[in-house]
Fold this protein.
Amino acid sequence: MEVKILSAKFDIKNSNKLKTAKKHGAYQTLEKLFSMEPAEVIEEVKNSGLRGRGGAGFPAGVKWSFLPKDTGKPVYLAVNSDESEPATFKDRYILVKDPHMMIEGIIICSYAIGSHDTYIYVRGEYTTQVKVLQAAIDEAYKAGYLGEKVAGHDFRLDVTVHRGAGAYVCGEETALLESIEGRKGQPRSKPPFPAVSGLYGCPTIINNVQSIASLPFIMQEGADAYKAYGTEKSPGTHLFGISGHVEKPGLYELPLGLPILEVIDKVAGGVWKGRKLKAVIPGGSSTPVLLPEEAATTTLDYESMAEHKTMFGSGGIVVLDETVNIVELVQNLINFYHHESCGQCTPCREGLGWMKKITQKILKGEGSMADIDLLRELCDNIEMKTVCVLSAACTMPVRSYLDKFRHEFEAYVTANEPLVAEATEE
Amino acid sequence: MADKIKLFVNGEEVEVEAGKNLIDAVGAVGIEIPHLCYHPALGADGNCRMCLVGIEDGRPPLVPACKTRAQEGMKVLLDAKHIKKIQRDVMELELINHPIDCPVCDQAGECKLQDYYMSYDQAESRMTVAPVKKNKKMDFGGGVVHDQERCIICGRCVRFLRQITKTGELGIINRTDVARVNIFPGRPINNRYGINVVDLCPVGAMTSSDFRFKQRVWFLKKALSVCHGCSKGCNLTIDHNKEKNKDDIIYRFRPRLNEQVNGYFICDEGRLSYKLENEDRLTTPKIGTVERDLTDVLASCKNEIEMSTNVTILLSPNASLEQMVAVKALAGKLNASISGFSDGYIITGDGDDYLIQDDKAANRKGLELLGIDTSQQGFEQAIAEADLLINFGNNLGLSYGADALKTLLTDTKTIACATHDSEYLAGAKLTIAVRSYSEYDGCVVNCDNILQKFNKAVTKNNELPTICEIAAEFGGPLTSPAEIFAELQQAAPALKPYQPATIPAEGLNLNDSEAANVTA
């Protein structure tokens, strides 16, 4: 099931070094790139159907075409490497294992959108990744792939690495821009969208690491070769981080559209210790949970996820076995989003803290049915009333747990004990 | 006039001014969109989420009204069930960590949260868990006391200090529900406009150390006035109260919106200058240093005027136009020279490029308008020949040192009308205590030539005479307010279409009317 496009060089020793990367094909698309018109590049990416890999899945080529023409202002590219969604660990591999693939992708994107300055926003906790990435950028400058004349062509491109300070919310496009500009990382109201007024008030494209890293393949092999993978509406491959209660957790590159349970069984070795599957988080902690019977008909693509009232998200699949205490899981989840709320909008700032305390109260056995109802109601009251979707990233999954596992919450209220299987260690 | 556009609110067509956001546009025609973080002087921030409204045109179902420009044909939904629910839900979330102790909060009675609770919520609290604990009674410096628990993180104060004063003393530190407004360590609020954050704060988080807990605001009587602290003439609301068996006291000055003068704000010195109206006031007339009845003092004054051969009259640059007109008429009657010399009121370099002016007098332009000489030379020439100086409120002690003043007035007796005791008054032969500007109606002309009306706020138990009344007592020909105003209309033709009560609240720009006269 596994394919090797993005991860082609992941198993090669020293793949982060320019010499090794070049030996395995890095920067080979540049001649072709500069022989094309930027509009042709955009068209090719549009044709490939590449969708933004940050979670929302918005078609990358279409996003680029939103840039207003001839504003007289510089166009910026910001690469989102703030990968902070719990259960997501794909971009970090690219940064460490194949940074030159990303730099090549940056060159392709910059040429297509007419940008000469790229900011790579790297999650603050990614200390090793930043070192490796910066070394790769330095090598690329030295070799002439970045700087005044990219690969000898009349095209300037400068790349700056900007480290975050450890805020999940800075993965939100406009909070990321605020952070680069040196302000507190708080999302901006939209409109205006970054494509019109982004970094320093200039047109800005923000793409995820994996989206950018997918570009060299599309340039090299063409849109049709990319579309050969995946489904019609969700083409291509994706790096899936499978974690939780499976025998072989890890990062796997798969074409989109595979049945999720088959992937768990055949790729990740199935639920560990022979236990029963309780639920699957399909794409990072903010995606609504799937029950086994729902997962049975779910495939790993944007459309199937939407049909099952969840989201494709960031490809971070978490497998939960029968011993998982859902109420504790929800507590953990709310704690995270509460901690990461930027504190700007009233509903998110005040509401998530309230939800956290209500869940604590239920876990302590001090809750009532009214508290469960209130928790459920707060999900509706908070969601989509805010500048960004951080609050929704909490309320959407919490609502799914409350709806699908309400009996576990009620058990804390009525019997004051969890309704889960005892963990048995072999 | 600004362009008008038509849009629909709850299905009803309304005509509003173009180019404004929804809150201001429909607010101007009396339709309230609740909001906490938005302030017209600070722009839209969009954090409180109280102003979410529906727009029925296919855009996202909810938009913040503060960030949405009113557009022709727009269909705004305000009274729909789901919008009302959002307002209730946001109010509930605003209140869960906000202390519900309005009876002991200084903001009660002028609190937007309290008002909105009554208008948009009125629900029982469902908060059964412990609220977030934060710091209380924090001294932020500059006369500002902060309560972090009452704060709703709307950021108005932070934005004011960043955008208006550009001093940036405040920031919102931390995230999530422990986010709080604070100063930076060791760097208190330190600018001349800092107390405006107290007015800007929609809740009781920012209080003035000068005013807090002195009065419940619903007991305060309000009067519209104009600051006399400098020549800018910032618009004020005077909050005063006469408690049982006590005198009428001013408790605070608050800025009052006037787009063409001061906008929404005033400086701290002006704000705190209310104290001068309460304290160190001259209350009894004197002959020499002996306190006497007003009748006795007036009789002595008239006697002195009769006996004198050459009178010089000096006016204060703080006197109202009405007082200037009355005194000028008196000067004519007495054949006296008249001067408005008051260089000592000007503190060169003290002003800034915002509101504060070098000239600490409220009506120097008024002297100019009435053609009253303000030169030092003119005044000194007049004094050299005069045996009597009638001084209407001009503190000569600001313009001369004690010795210089003594020399100047060696051969001149002084009748002084004054509001406040001062060293200079010690040399006066006769002293009459008169009302200060919070105690009479009048007009002043500010540094930008804008004529503004202010109203009487305070009536003291022992009500003093006004300068106009004294001028009439001394034989001035203008004895009634109507006569004075008619005379004033001659000097300021822009006033002709008006009566004292109908002068526009935003003032009359005399430059405009002069220009209008020229073209006509």
